[in-house]
Structure formats: structure tokens, C-alpha cells
Design goal:
With 181 residues, the protein is of the alpha+beta class. It folds into two domains: 83 residues, no CATH class; 60 residues, Roll (Nuclear Transport Factor 2, Chain: A). Helices cover 29% and strands 19% of the residues. Strands 5-6-7-8 form a four-stranded antiparallel beta sheet. A two-stranded antiparallel sheet has the order 1-4. The protein has a two-stranded antiparallel sheet with strand order 2-3. It is elongated. The protein starts with a strand and ends with a strand.
């Protein structure tokens, strides 16, 4: 797995290992790549599990990973470091401030799962039908600025948002109209 420029390879490699359960073998500083072992791989020739992990990892770590390669015939980089080297103090003894916190791979997976659930619930919305309890528990109020820009509401009606959907509800909580964006 090769990491994008600007991504610290050891940090990213350890984050991927924690999130996926893949065993980190080491990191190559010259290629900005990490080598992993999949504990549950059953077909080393075909890389069946590696292929399954590929889409998940590339999605969860979007923008961090340049390439994801697998197979028994890949050459191991000659400068593969099996442990993270200690960081040296720069000249003058001053250390750089720690990098800003970034979302971890686990954070990305949680957010994507939450968003996917909202989209699935929003797909169940139908004009003329009431909100079911599960959908009702996930709706959010519409920001006041948007409410001001929208036309006047009929008496007893309100706007709500669910995932990427603006919903007009009547006083009985029946869906009157939907805008998907």
C-alpha cells in the first residue's frame, strides 16, 4: 500500500492496521509504502481477501492511499523498516508542533456508516405517508437561514432534513413533499 505525499507513512500505516486488523510488517521510507499480512487470507495465489479489503480500505482512507497492490510476487522494498525509527530532535533542539489531528480510518468508517444509514432511511420516504418511528428518530431541524429562504409554510407544517433530503411534513407528521440533494 503506497501513501500519498503529505501523509506520514508510519502514522497512516499504523492507522490502517488498527482499523482493518491487517498485520503491519513494516514501512519503506523510499517508496512511502507499507507491507501488511492478512491473517484471514486463504488463497495466497489469488489474494481473495486482499481483493475484498481493497475497496473498503481505499474508501475508508480516501486521499491517503495512492495505490493498493497485493499478491505473492510483489518485491519487498530493500529499505523496509519493521519498527518505527525514533524521531530525532532538529538542530537547535526545537521540535515541530504535533500535526493537527486528522480523522482516523475508524472515524471515517463510522461516519460513512452513519451517512449510509441516513440515506437508506431517506429512501423510504414517500409523499402522502407518515414518518415511521425509526425515520422520525433521525430527522434534524432545518437551519433557520434555509427556513427563511423557503416559501411560507402551511399552518401546522414544518421542514426537516434527513441525510440528503429536505422534507415538508404536515401537522400529522405525513410527508407532503421531498427535495433530494
Amino acid at each position: 500500500m503506497r501513501f500519498s505525499p503529505g501523509v506520514e507513512p508510519w502514522d497512516a500505516a499504523q492507522d490502517v492496521a488498527r482499523t482493518t486488523g491487517m498485520k503491519l510488517v513494516g514501512v519503506s521510507p523510499s517508496t512511502r509504502a507499507a507491507l501488511y499480512i492478512l491473517r484471514d487470507e486463504t488463497d495466497m495465489a489469488q489474494g481473495t481477501m486482499a481483493a475484498t479489503y481493497e475497496e473498503w480500505v481505499l474508501t475508508a482512507f480516501a486521499g491517503m492511499i495512492l495505490s493498493y497492490n497485493y499478491g505473492p510476487n510483489l518485491a519487498t522494498p530493500v529499505d523496509l523498516q519493521r519498527i518505527r525509527p525514533p524521531t530525532a530532535s532538529p538542530p537547535g533542539g526545537r521540535r515541530k508542533p504535533p500535526p493537527a489531528r486528522r480523522f482516523s480510518g475508524a472515524d471515517r468508517l463510522v461516519a460513512m456508516s452513519w451517512s449510509d444509514q441516513g440515506r437508506r432511511l431517506a429512501s423510504r420516504l414517500r409523499v402522502g405517508m407518515p414518518l415511521d418511528p425509526e425515520v422520525r428518530s433521525r430527522v434534524e431541524p432545518v437551519p433557520p437561514e434555509l427556513v427563511r429562504r423557503l416559501g411560507p409554510l402551511p399552518a401546522g407544517s414544518r421542514y426537516v432534513i434527513l441525510a440528503n433530503t429536505l422534507v415538508l411534513l404536515d401537522s400529522r407528521e405525513f410527508v407532503q413533499d421531498i427535495i433530494r440533494f
